[in-house]
Amino acid sequence: MSIKKIATMVGVSPATVSRILNNPDYRCSKQGLRDRVWKAAIELNYTPNMAARNLKLGKSGTESKVIYINVLMTRADTNQTDPFFSEILRVIESEIHKSGSILSNLWYRSLFSNDTRCDVENINRIITDMFEETGGKSDGLIILGRCNKKAIEQFSKVFGNVVLVNRNSAEYPVDEVLCDGKKIASMAVEYLYSLGHKKIGYVGECKNEVRYSGYLETLNHYGMELMPQYVIATRHTESSGYESMLKFLQSDECPTGIYCANDITAIGMLKCLAKFKKHYPRPSIISSDDIEEAQFSKPMLTTVRIPRDEMGRMAVKLLLDRIYGGHSSVVRMEVESKLIIRESCQHVSESVWSDYCI
Fold it and tell me: How does strand 102-108 pair with strand 68-73?
């Protein structure tokens, strides 16, 4: 099926379709255009003409079997909630396309990141139904985000070749591309400590979350006391960040520095501070991910960068290598994170809280 067919379905030029399919960083002129193009490509089972591509690249060889790859997003039920994994998805989509494979199905199922829901629902039946949706066109599955252990085991049985992409290791019997959440949290808290902060808070998920464990361990390492009122357990969304910051502002005593588990939550916190900036000094806020929006927030967000592009590329290469029999043992690939210093953190002397409460 040609790019022209996709372009006709979506109502854009073939050149635009080609840019979207091949370049994860291409900025679409219209919101939602990228999703519509990939939805059409999935519906049409689009794959690039590898003979033409090899000719253009000066390669030769016989046509090989077409590989069908499925992708599951577990952090949300839409593509608008978690920009970190949405940005990795863009890379994975393009890498699948460049490899000459087909993105067969794309699912958004937050059920699989919730252990409580997985315990009460028939996940075996749900996973079997998902496989049946592929119509047998499934050579492997990439899972983006945290996934329940029993679900992982069932996905491995049903789909065979599975790669998990996450901030933390699941330590399950499937290939993984990950970053170390404890190291990320430690890097963030250590930076706040270097600026003189000793009243450091945490905003994010706490249960079974290694970033929270890293936060606690780093406090202990530097002899800082854990103050329960400095910890707000919440979902990783912008609205949750706004509400969490509001709670801090309404409390009698607040941290001077805050580690937020991800960027989109931190951005919500910054928006709350912007609304009440006339009443409060600004606390230092640091987070992790380095999504695109982090450099456009006001102030620009200091964060720990996780190399999303590398994670996406590695996930596709690792899955294809397993499909083609390149390896049979479980492989875990860890990428290194990097501190990105911008404007949202300052020395503790500039972060003294007012006694005013709203």
Answer: parallel
Same domain, 146 and 269: no
d(Cα 234, Cα 322) in Å, to the nearest integer? 37
Rounded CA-CA distance 116/275 in Å is: 36
Would residue 194 count as lying in a domain? Answer: yes
Neighbours of 342 (CB within 10 A): 15
In a domain, 293, yes or no: yes
Amino acid in position 314? M
Radius of gyration of the chain (CA): 22
pTM attached to this predicted model: 0.82
Two tokens, residue 51: 């003979």
Query: What is the tally of structural domains in the chain?
Result: 2
pLDDT, tens digit, 9 for 90 and up, residues 181-207: 999 999 999 999 999 999 999 999 998
Please tell me whether residues 325 and 251 are part of one structural domain. no
Looking at residue 338, its pLDDT comes to 96
Spatial distance between the Cα atoms of 244 and 241, rounded to a whole number of angstroms: 5
